[in-house]
Amino acid sequence: MIKGGPFIMNYKNILVAIDGSEPAEKAFHRAVEIAKRNNARLILAHVIDNRRVGRVEAFSPNYFQDLQEKMREMLEEYKEKAEQAGIADVEISLEVGSPKVEVGKKIAPEYDADLIVCGSSGLSALQRWMLGSVSEGIARCARCDVLIVKGEDVEEEKEED
Length: 161
What we know:
By secondary structure, the chain is an alpha/beta fold. The chain is about 50% helix and about 20% strand. α1 links the parallel β1 and β2. α4 crosses α6. The longest helix is centred in the middle third of the chain and has 22 residues.
C-alpha cells in the first residue's frame, strides 16, 4: 500500500514487524533485501500484545518478565542475522500494547520509518473478521508505505488436505 505521493524507491528507515511466525520471517528477509539495496537503517520491532499478557499473568506472576526477555532475545537474534547479511545500522524496538496500533502510530514515527514491512497472517476470511488482521491494521494506521509480505494461504492448505 503506497500512502500519498509518488512511489518512493529510496527508503532510508525500514521497520519490520517480527513476531516469530513464518510470515514474519519472510517479511524480515524481504526487509533485509530492501535495506541492502537502499543502504538503509533497519528497525526490528515486536509488540507484546497487552490483551493477552493480563490474562496469563494472573496465573504466572513472572510471565510478563519472562516474555519480555524471550522477545528481546528473539530480536537480538534477528539483529545478528541482519548484520551478518550486511546491514550496518540495525536497531531494536520492543513495546507493549496493540500491535496494530503501536507499529504504525508509535514505532514508525519514532524511528522516522518510510517503509513498514510485515507478514500476512494467512488468516481465513472468518478469522480476519473475528480477530482482525494485524497487517491490515498496520496499513490503516501507518503514515508511510506498508509492504505486506504474503505467507502461505490458509484456505489453499485446507483444500490440499
